[in-house]
Amino acid sequence: MTSAVIWTIVILAGLGFVLALLLYLFAQKFKVSEDSRIEEIEGVLPGANCGGCGYAGCHDFAASLLDAPDLSAHYCPVGGDAVMEQVAAILGYEPVKKVPKIAVIRCNGTCEARPKINIYDGAQSCVVKAGLYAGDTACSYGCLGCGDCVEACLFGALSMDP
Fold first, then answer.
1. Looking at the predicted structure, is the pLDDT value of residue 138 above 80?
2. Is the pTM of this model over 0.85?
3. Per DSSP, what are the bridge partners of residue 116?
4. Maximum Cα interatomic distance, the chain, rounded to a whole number of Å
5. What is the mean pLDDT of the segment spanning 47-59?
6. Separation CA 162–CA 147 (nearest Å)
7. 105 φ, ψ to 5°?
8. CB 116 within 8 A of CB 137
């Protein structure tokens, strides 16, 4: 090998070593320390990152629990009471039990009680219907009746009666 190639290899190796050392030093100087309990709580949570708790994901939910004086305002709907009991044990709080919520239609509630205002003849999808208009009945708040929500729910929490 020529001396130019050897010098090139030595210089690049030295430069790589110096830059790696600088990266390490900057990482140590500017690292953000995080409470180890966040990772422990995240390990207990289901990891669905669904946002059902009101936070962007399980990590944000776990971080917010550390600042909370108790668990009364925090609940993981996917994990339920069993997960919240484990979280309470980690944090040393009293576990809070939630009463299950069930959605109930409080209007006339049946298709026969909603007068039809038009006839829809198109794709049977709630997404399409909602994009075009508010539904084919006089109730603009009611279910569009195609069942997209049932198919989209990963946890089997929704159902439609025939």
1. no
2. no
3. 137
4. 92
5. 90
6. 11
7. -80, 120
8. yes
So where are the chain's domains?
1-31, 36-91, 111-152
Distance CA 123, CA 117 (A): 18
Q: What's the fold here for domain 36-91?
A: 3-methyladenine DNA Glycosylase II; Chain A, domain 3 (1.10.15)
The letter for the amino acid at 10 is V
Where does the pLDDT of residue 109 fall: very low under 50, low under 70, confident under 90, or very high at 90 and above? low
Distance CA 65, CA 69 (A): 8
Question: What pLDDT is recorded for position 96?
Answer: 83
Residue 127 corresponds to which tokens in the numbers above? 């997404």
Flag the least confident range among 32-36, 103-107, 134-138, 153-157. Answer: 103-107
For position 106, what pLDDT does the model report?
A: 63
- Taking alpha carbons only, the member of 155, 161, 1 closest to residue 79 is 155
Burial class of 143 by CB neighbour count within 10 A (0 to 12, 13 to 18, 19+): middle
The answer to whether 39 and 63 are in contact (CB under 8 A) is no
